[in-house]
UniProtKB/TrEMBL annotation:
InterPro entries: NTF2-like_dom_sf, SnoaL-like. Residues 7-109 form the SnoaL-like domain. It comes from the Bacteria. It comes from Flavobacterium alkalisoli. This is Nuclear transport factor 2 family protein.
Length: 120
């Protein structure tokens, strides 16, 4: 599968919020370098799985809207907005954050990620 198609499948399937689904997409040696409006984090596979589990517990539902996706030499850059419905107000959709990530794909899985985010 082409790297761009892998990334599309990941986001379109909602695997980012489902631990079991996510496991198929992330490499055992994953490293995610994340610069956010709250600081810098470096996550490994287990950290990212824990984050997905927390996302599933924290919101009734969530979705991403991809505005840009570009592939070059097996690297895929994605710009998207992440929307959520909180338990406190499930009828209102809110912007969780805006994201820009570059995924390096190895063995048909996400191997390295370089993420920047801004809270919505």
């Amino acid at each position: 599968m082409e790297a761009k198609e892998l990334v599309k499948e990941y986001y379109n399937s909602g695997a980012y919020r489902n631990v079991d689904a996510m496991k198929r997409f992330i490499h055992k040696d994953l490293v995610l370098q994340w610069h956010s409006s709250k600081g810098y984090l470096e996550l490994d596979k287990n950290d990212l799985l824990a984050l997905a589990q927390e996302l599933g517990k924290s919101y009734v539902s969530s979705r991403v809207a991809i505005s840009h996706i570009i592939e070059e030499e097996g690297n895929v850059c994605v710009r998207y907005t992440h929307y959520v419905h909180a338990f406190e107000n499930p009828d209102e959709e809110m912007v969780l954050a805006n994201f820009m990530i570059i995924w390096e794909v190895k063995d048909n899985q996400f191997y390295k990620g370089y993420l920047m985010s801004q809270l919505g």
